[in-house]
Amino acid sequence: MRLAHPSWRPLRRRLNAIIAGCHRLIESVCNPYRPELHYMRGPGPKWQARHRPR
Fold it and tell me: How far is CA 20 from the centre of its chain?
């Protein structure tokens, strides 16, 4: 039997939806961007030099 047969179309659509969902899930879990690694750590040395008490 070929997959182009009309009775296979609903099954193929469901399988494609499941595969696409799994692909999105894997991409979201393996996303390399981690914003907590790029947070601001406070004022830099120039700011501290300007605001240092005299």
Answer: 15
Residue identified by tokens 């605001």 is 51
d(CA 44, CA 52): 12
Question: Which residues fall within 8 angstroms of residue 3, CB to CB, at 6 or more apart?
Answer: 12
Domain ranges of the chain: 1-33
| Pairwise CA distance, residues 7 & 5, whole Å | 6
pLDDT digits (tens, 9 = 90+) for 6-40: 788 899 999 999 999 999 999 888 877 777 777 77
Can you tell me the distance from the alpha carbon of 26 to that of 39, in angstroms, rounded to the nearest whole number? 25
